[in-house]
Design brief:
The chain is of the alpha+beta class. The chain contains 29 helices and 22 strands. Among the domains are: 233 residues, 3-Layer(aba) Sandwich (Vanillyl-alcohol Oxidase, Chain A, domain 3); 124 residues; 38 residues, no CATH class. Helix content is 42%, strand content 16%. The strands form three sheets. An eleven-stranded mixed sheet has the order 11-10-22-19-18-12-17-16-13-15-14, sandwiched between helices. Strands 1, 2, 3, 4, 5, 6, 7, 8 and 9 form a nine-stranded antiparallel sheet that branches. A two-stranded antiparallel ribbon has the order 20-21.
Amino acid sequence: MERTVLVFTAILIGAAVAFVVFKLLKKRRLPSLVEFDNITLHIRVPKMQFEKHTELQAAPLAAEQLFSSLHGLLREDAGEQEHVSFEIAATKDGISFYCTVPKHIRGFVESQIYAQYPDAQITESGDFADSSVPSFSRSGHFILSKDLMFPIKTFRDFEVDPLAAITSALSNVADKEEVWLQFLVRPIPDGWQEAGYDYIKIITEGTKAVTLSLKEIIKDAFSEILSIVFVEVPKRVVANEPPPLPVPKPLSGAPKLSSDKELELEAIGNKLSKMGFEVEIKIAAFAQDRDRLENIIRGVTASFRQFSTSSLNSLKSADWGDDLMKIKDDFKKRTLHTDKIALLNTEELASIFHLPSSKVDTPNISWTLASRGEPPLNLPTENCTYFGVTTFRDKKVKFGIRNDNADRDRHMYLVGKTGTGKSTIFKNMIIQDMRKGFGVGVIDPHGELVDFVLNNVSDDRVEDVVLFDPSDYQYPVSLNMLECADPSQKNLMASGLLAAFSKQFGYSWGPRLEYLLNNAILTMLDVPGTTMLGITRLFADKNYQNYIVHKVKDPIIKEYWNKEFRDMKGNQSLITESLSPIQNKVGRFLSASTMRNILGQRNSTINLQDIMNNKKILLVNLSKGKIGEDNAYLLGSLLVSRLFFEVVQRVNMPEEERQPFYLYIDEFQNFASDSFADILSEARKYRFVLHLTHQYTAQLSEPIQNAIFGNVGTIVALTLGAQDAAVLAPEFAPVFEENDLITLEKFHFYVKLMIDAMTSAPFSGASLPPPSKEEYTNNKDKVIDASRRKYGTNYLEVEAKIKAWIERPFDLGMAIAEEHREKKAMETQQPAEEGEIRLNPKRLDTRV
């Protein structure tokens, strides 16, 4: 019976030894990452991510938590165990951090990185190992100099972030030089600590000499097992002897340990208390010559000596090679060589690799330029006019403002520096609105946006376009700003025109000037068929003034001219001081033939009401380079005021019949008077939707700023200057800070989006690319020809009418005679011949 037991025992022990050997051999057959179909991720973090944390170890602590989470990837079968490669690459473009993972665990690894670094930006990138590098190259490994149970120095032992020394060495890389570091990490089960615990027990209990090393302990244990299996067991079987009773080894008594030895055991115990990873640390350097290569290698390897302690462990470099192809192939495959690994716990691993923070003040690190924010759950993705894609955690979802509810009616405001992508957003939205058949208006002070739109008008909308281009000298359109069909609206129209003038007069504007110009505008509005050309003539030509005043029906206005203005003219210095700004500003504006030919025609060829109600496309090209800056701004201001005047006339229209009209104004501050605040607050009711953009907030008066932030539903901020960031930061807090607004990348933005009548929390996005030239419809010439045919008039005809009006004398007698003819015509029910309208029915119409 005893013999049977001994045989059975021997078989069990042999099987156990064979199983251990098999597992060890299997464990060494590790696949490279390339066999797992890997992907390389570029990881960037904001420099100030841990700024609110006062402790130095915030960044490595986050990495320690990350590695603890990644230990969850541990598999029962070591042969199937994946490993992950954390990497640092220093090139001429800076120092970048990467993570290469098998695709099937990408989601898990990303989620754990985000859990510890919420503001990280992770994007797919090309493999830096595929890049072209100089011919002089060297690669090597870092391994532990002592047994695995002895720890290296960790971040808790440093007064500065240990990553700073490594990145500082990498920052010395010059053009056409590169350094790559790979940290291949693979979780292992907890059995690795047993030998270390045995060592501690032996030292503290004194069962062996305190100088006994781990290798000696393992060697003795293995020899004893072999002796039992292959010597004692067979011997007892053959001799049919019972096994001897175990005889305890005599204890030598617990020795008194030195303080250094106690610290050593405490450090070993701390290492053994945490989860472990097999880690292969690779380095490769490339340079133009061998001396430079040696200097780079020396600097980087020296930075790893900071983890060394004389009594514990250290990282030493080994296995250097210089075969360029082998180096690149090995780094690309990311093969984990089990004969070159160091066994590190999570704290040690976090010490040699973690993502940087503001505590690492090394230049050329690839930081995130700005934070990214999470989009709302109810992000509009259907029935939209799209203008961007989300960027949070590299998940790109196209979104926009809904067209099937009232979200767009609350207007849209964009602000950002020149060249940051404001026009790109406008281009995408305008094209979509045109293709959907909406009414669209564009006011462009540069001409480039209008030119783009002209080239993207679809065939079915060519006839819908009304092109307002003052620089088209040969075929000017007509827009009589004093044309008013409803006499009850005269004061409203005069108020809008006055606000437009006040915007352009600047410092010369005052109460007296405003009073004079207001009375002049009301006077001209009271006489049908007049134009803005009459304003300056009203002050300069006494006979024309008498002619017009006699036709005025409003007694207050008539009294002003017959008494108040006549008394004012008795004070020559006062009248000169008051009238000079009008003649200088208005006179100079109307003296330009391009302005005169548009505003001086009696009958408008452009009907703004018709454009808005019938969903047409109004393109206003106010290119400053063609018509002059002052003229562009004043004409634009007048046009905006006229548009709003026409909008409020929709009050008489049933609400369900009010077609939405989407007006896009680039650099709107040039056309926005203080009355613009009224437009923002009132336009929504009339389905007049504004899309406004400009460069910086100082361009706006305080009333307009308040109106924008109080009335606009969707606010988009692109890259801003420091002053503007301070103004806009409260709108995007607490998700984003001032520095985020300053460091936004080109074509990226932060947005507060109107969704279902509620403003969303701020989130980040990037603008959609505009159509390429290959997608253009190239209907520009067709549109121009169609618009000229419908709304333009040959300039020779226009100038002839204006010339006849300028040269024609007016006086009081003519007004009286016309009045007499009008009365007589009414008595006979025949149309009267008005002196200002026609000299003779057979002659040219002189009232332009």
